[in-house]
């Protein structure tokens, strides 16, 4: 008798792992309605067993990071996209959820856009979120 074990990953699996995308990325983003408020942070991309993208986001003038795990992530060698659910605070009875799409460049930088999907903070309902950043050297 033979016993077979199968590993079932908890997230989406990458069949063709893009080279050079794994690791830490430093980023900044701002909302189009008030570009003086700049959010900053770090993004970690891990494709070891399954795809996981995590974010540490610092609000303007803040020293405490909000740690988020990206959901519904899609990734290839030119783009990372997904949603972020800010689950520390409720706005209008629900958690803020934003979509992001980051276009990766050959020089280990990225630019992208996003927008609020639901439970938006006041004034950000129709604002575009502009992202930019670069890979952290190993």
Report on this model:
The protein has about 140 residues and is mainly β. It has strands spanning about 25-30, 35-45, 50-60, 65-70, 70-75, 80-90, 95-105, 110-120, 130-135. The protein is globular and about 40 Å long. The termini are far apart. Residues about 1-15 have low confidence and may be disordered.
Helix-strand pattern, N to C? EEEEEEEEE
User: What is the number of helical segments per DSSP (H or I, 4+ residues)?
Assistant: 0
- Would you count the extended β strands for me? 9
Overall residue-averaged pLDDT value: 86
Question: What percentage of the residues does DSSP assign to strands (E)?
Answer: over 45%
Summary tags:
138 residues, disordered N terminus
Topology at a glance:
Elements: E1 23-31, E2 34-46, E3 52-58, E4 65-69, E5 71-75, E6 79-91, E7 94-104, E8 109-118, E9 128-135
In short:
The protein is mainly β and 138 residues long. It has a domain of 63 residues.
């Amino acid at each position: 008798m033979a016993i077979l074990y199968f590993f079932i990953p908890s997230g989406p699996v990458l069949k063709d792992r893009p080279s050079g995308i794994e690791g830490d990325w430093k980023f900044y983003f701002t909302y189009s309605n008030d570009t003086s408020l700049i959010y900053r942070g770090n993004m970690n991309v891990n494709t070891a067993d399954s795809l996981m993208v995590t974010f540490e986001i610092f609000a303007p003038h803040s020293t405490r990071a909000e740690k988020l795990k990206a959901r519904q992530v899609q990734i290839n060698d030119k783009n990372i996209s997904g949603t972020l659910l800010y689950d520390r605070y409720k706005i209008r009875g629900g958690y803020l959820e934003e979509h992001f799409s980051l276009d990766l460049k050959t020089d280990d930088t990225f630019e992208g856009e996003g927008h609020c999907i639901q439970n938006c903070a006041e004034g950000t309902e129709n604002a575009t979120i502009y992202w930019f950043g670069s890979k952290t050297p190993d």
